[in-house]
Specification:
The N terminus and C terminus are likely disordered. The chain has 2 domains: 181 residues, Uncharacterised protein YcnI-like PF07987, DUF1775 (Immunoglobulin-like), CATH 2.60.40.2230; 58 residues. The chain is an alpha+beta fold. The strands form 4 sheets. The chain has a 6-stranded mixed sheet with strand order 1-7-8-5-11-12, with helices on one face. A 4-stranded antiparallel sheet has the order 3-4-9-6, with no helix packed on it. The radius of gyration is 32 Å and the shape is globular. 25% of the residues lie in helices and 35% in strands.
Length: 246
Amino acid sequence: MSDVSTSPALSVRSRLARAAVVPAAAAAVLLCAPSAGAHVTVTPSTTSAGAYSVLTFSVGHGCGEAPTTSMTFQVPDGVISVTPTAKAGWSVEKVMEELDEPVDDGHGGQYTERVAAVVYAAEEPLADGYRETFELQLALPEAAGEQLVLPVVQECTRGENAWVQVAAEGADEPEYPAPAFTLTEATSDGHHGGAEADDAHGEAGEQADAATAEASASGDGLAWTGLGLGAAGLLAGGAALVRSRR
């Protein structure tokens, strides 16, 4: 079940406010201490700048021992459209915000708003110690070499974990790191294989056509040879029959 809203509830707006990226030193208001190594992580299907990627977020614990009730994923600036994967046992809501300037959608139209966040709410709280994943599909920014930071707020029956900290360069990992990964150079294959794939496909097609033509020609030659041998056999048989009757 999904609910797309352009007028999000106050609770959703408060989640967004808490999901703002903050330096590690400024996050002293967090309520629950996570266990070592038990962070919310993100695994992209591709990191290629400008490509469509499915981001898989994973959470494997609650807030302390408190069960998880919702997960709010903040969408970075520059990303317009997001397609969340529907999940059994969770409702999903897109939180929209108006754009300062319309953006070309690439299909003759314009975007006047973008997805600012995606909120998954559990129908039944997810107990501590159980793993769950969430998927968001989006077009990655055209910013190879830069880090894409994806803050997440995890709310529980008691307290919350705001995974929004970003460590300064060279500093140790913060206690509540925001999921992130580095965008890599765009590849030539694009979304559908690109020029190199087309060339390879064309070359393979040409080779297949040549092989088919050769096989056809070879088959035709064998067929005519067979017909000739058959005719010669009939003639020889006829002559023998005439001689036997004489």
